[in-house]
């Protein structure tokens, strides 16, 4: 199942609206890069573990 990470669910001073979806490892890697580049976090194993815990299942898309 695809996973989703949505910055809107974690308010910040910059009111970030980025949402990332994909396979779990893809989302964790992209979210870690985003957290470092945009939010000033250090990309560490601890950050990635924390991000992994915040992932949600993507809602199924119906045609």
UniProtKB/TrEMBL annotation:
InterPro entries per UniProt: DUF1059
Source organism, top-level taxon: Bacteria
Protein name (database record): DUF1059 domain-containing protein
A Pfam family this chain is assigned to: DUF1059
Bias type Basic and acidic residues, positions: 54-63
Region (Disordered): 37-63
